[in-house]
Amino acid sequence: MTRRIANLTQGTFVRIESSPYSDWGVGKLTDIQGGLARIQFFDAPGAALPEAVEVALSHVRGAMLPVQTRVYRRMQGGRWQVGRVQEGEGPILFVQFPNGETVNVEAEQLEVRWSRPLTDPLPLLVSEATETPFLADARSRFVRAVARQHFAAAGIDAVLCSAIDLVDYQFDVVRRVLTDPIQRYLLADEVGLGKTIEAAIIVRQYFIDDPSAEAVLIVPTALVYQWRRELSARFGLGNELDDHLHVIAHDDLDRLSQVIGSAGMLVVDEAHHLSRQSTAGQHQLYALLESHARRVPRLLLLSATPVLGNAEEFLRVLHLLDPVVFPLEDLEGFKRRIASRQVVAEVVSTLVPQNVWGLGPDLERLLENYPDDPLLVTKVAALQQVLNTFPDEESESFLAALDDLKTHLVENYRLHRRLLRNRRAAVSWATPRRADMRPVAFTGQATATWRDRLETLRLAATAAGSLTPPIEQALLQSAVNPHASAPLRPALAQAGLDHPDLLSQAEAVDHAAQRLRDDPARIIALCRQVRALLETPGTQVVVFCDRPEDADRVAQALAGQVGDRVVRHEPVEVDEDGEVTAPQWEQFLAAPERIRVLVCDVRAEEGVNLHGGRKVAVHYDLPASPNRIEQRLGRLDRYGTGDPIVSYVLLDEANADEAAWASVLDHGWGVFGQSVASLQYLIEATAGPLAREWVELGTVALETQAQQLGGEDGWVQREVRQLNHQDGLDAMANREIPGMETLEDEDSDWVEWRAAFKALAIEALQFHWHSEGEPGAPSADTPFRVGYTYRDSGRTTLLPLTGFLKHFLATVDQHAAGGSARLPLTQRYAFKRQTTTSRRGLAQGIRLLRIGDPLVTSLEQFCANDDRGRAFAVWRVDRQYEVSDPSGADLYFRFDILVRPALPSEAPEGGSGADDPSQRLHTQALVRKASTFLPPLALRVWVQGNGEIEVDPSDLLTSEYADSWKGTRRDFNLNVRRWRSLPADIKSTWMRDWAGLCERQRQTAMATVRALPQYQSRLQQALQACVQERRLRRSQGDARASRLAGAAQEQELEELRQADAMYAALEAAIAHPHLELDVVGAVFLASDSPFDE
Prior knowledge:
Elements lengths: L1 E2 L9 E4 L10 E7 L2 E5 L12 E4 L3 E4 L6 E5 L5 E8 L4 E5 L5 E5 L3 E2 L10 H5 L6 H21 L3 H5 L6 H11 L4 E5 L7 H15 L5 E5 L4 H10 L11 E5 L3 H7 L5 E4 L11 H14 L4 E5 L8 H11 L9 H10 L1 H9 L9 H10 L4 H14 L8 H18 L5 E2 L13 E9 L4 H18 L4 H12 L7 H7 L5 H19 L2 H14 L4 E6 L3 H15 L3 E3 L18 H4 L6 E4 L13 E6 L6 H9 L10 E8 L3 H14 L10 H18 L1 H11 L5 H16 L9 H9 L1 H15 L3 E4 L12 E4 L13 H8 L20 E2 L2 H5 L1 H6 L2 E2 L5 H12 L5 E8 L11 E11 L16 H17 L3 E8 L10 H4 L10 E5 L2 H5 L3 H6 L4 H18 L1 H30 L3 H26 L2 E13 L7
Helix pairs in contact: 2-27, 2-28, 4-5, 11-12, 11-26, 12-13, 13-14, 14-38, 15-18, 16-24, 17-18, 19-20, 23-25, 24-25, 33-39, 38-39
């Protein structure tokens, strides 16, 4: 809190408002000369004063010290006394000191720690300014717990603190992006594998890393609500929406133009849509993105579109990613590049251990086609040499050489090394599989008449000739899905087919189609099937209709038979302020035991996720496009657990075309058994010819296409094989993800994490614990809130309120039940991941408490900046203890040491590069990459007073602090009075050169850490992994650069130079890490107490 003071005087507490000192906290004004103010900051009792700062007086403001601010007063004899501000401002403060002493003190006599981290707590012990071991133990337990989380997350906090399942391949994608100083990536996972989750983790990490983050997400209109909901419910970014985080529809050019200029990150979902230049709006959007994509330091493009198909569209996507390597004017070169990969793509598909005896010809093909790739030639030769020893398929040397060659091919012949793609085939466990199609047969009363009239019209149209493709499509649509077909007479007339007989026949078909739609037979059959399905407990049914009118009729009919267990899907409505009310149909997901049926129309085929549990699809009708069926089933088989998806299809036995079309979908495309999302270009290519052939041949055309598409040698499998070859080069390897097991193990240890958090926040710092449910067993996870408490509540939080609000503001829920201005409460939290990812947890917005969450971050800042718990001293009595030292007490020092790579700060202050986004991004990637090699390591060393290492400390030495008698044992915290009361023999033995003794034992502890086998092996492993990765990066980069030319080659070489510099810095940081003293303590072991109490 700052204020303007007309006459700042010497000794006044002040803050500096100019960079880089604005975050340094409170200092003391010591002098004013010629418009310059001299400010002295204070680090800690016993520590050297930081160098004084001189700034313009106009940048200095008086600082009020809020209640509970921690202050220090130097007493006679040099000892320090610690107190807390209770009241007052200006030159006189009312301060509470230990043992109930509360007095008025002149501000000039007090000191306040600045807001920079306390890097060395040893001066606190030297100057006897120690705290109770209770605080040190609570803080140490918390610090060790968060260190383990940082170790597991490897610098990607957002993975742990988001309400998502931990998935290895998603973690791998996120880690690749965030450890790269150039964060421009195309995330190309196949449909349903979680590109949204991957991108949202990266967005969340951006907001964790950068307080000034500004991100713009550009998504299809139908997905705006889904993105906003996910970012809020799962990733805790609801407070950022519309202020610093914008989710904008593809067609909202006006709003996008207003915010894109300040974006530090761009995320483009369904990026392939933007490459289709069929409308003026798409042209404008692409041009806008192209102009800003070059500038923005973070760019994520999301698209599941395969490389094969429309090369021009894919080139436009890659051009946004890397305009140097993929210039728009070189479409022919891009096509040649795709074609040239075919040999490699085919060979990669054969590089499997089971093919050990058949690899020879494929290796020769590689040598024939790529003789100018020296690394490839070397790796092929190495594999051939192993093959000459006639290995079996499990031979370690064979598997290593095979994997080495395959890795080289995949990494160097992929279209772009920042294209990341996971395939369903490699992670088949990640999504529920599709089971099969089961027909639900019935006979419509009006179908025969309608079909006769349509067949008459088809023959007449064939005779008329010159039908346009839209008319052919309209006729086929009418044949296979009469319930959703548009009237044919207006379509024919508009197309210029105005022969009276033809129009009359079309009108007859339209009248018959309306009677068919009014026929209740289809709805009766559907209701019968749904009732049968609901007899299986836990089953939920999703009914898909094409037209909203049909969905309304179906929902009404089902409601009459199954009551309020059915709900109708409706699009999300956004009010004029952009606020969204959760739609009623979401109860289908939130209350599956109560709402069993969801009825959807075409508007639910995009932007709605219905996966999880036991879901069944019932298709009221079948649209005339396999892509539409894929969209429907894609709502149900996205990432997550769930039973296989069975599709029930209503088929009118009086309509042969409907049954034949169902066969095309099932036996031809196989859409009810597997995703056909990657086949979209083949689907588009066959749609026109099929419509034309149906007009000429009728039902036979459908039956013929089912045969052409299906089977091992059918069109579908041929396309799949070709896609598999090409995708195999761009897909990420199906391998064990390093660090994933550690991440899962640490995340599952939530009971210990809960204990560590509560020990510091609730028991030591006196925050309020507000349970949101009935207390359960220790293994139960009850949602809770954390609150700040005032003195008048009987329990006082031991932090200044202003500090609490500053760091905790992002967590405060102003609408929390039980909260108030006198008791601000946080959002709901839980410790167990499954609590937050459950339907109930997501519906209630329960956050997962882990590193990365502002609440934990604020406590980490407290641990770094506050001296409480950093140094302790205790006189520990055990009446049965045998003292060895003649002084009457044995002395032991405890040193808690953190080992970290010796890297620069993530947020440089002042100096070159502080405000450079690319430099800041490079530093963050460097720190994160270092964490993957050498995560923080917490070690504890006990040193005897005589300098000997206590290798195996006793239970007496390591037991928890006890300030009352427990049998023969009790602890006495060495406060100011007790330090003064230590026996003379203790003072003459241990305290004679106390500062020198403390420093010598610190050096002993540091030397012990450096000699530990655990420390040395960890450094050796980290350095070896870093060197290996550096060599691989260099060899791959050289190989890529050799196949490039001009600006593209220079760009690749420049990235290689930057990578070399990064790895050199990493190797130096790992070889000579920082050893930070986190906590220091002194324990005097004695058999009696020298204190009169």
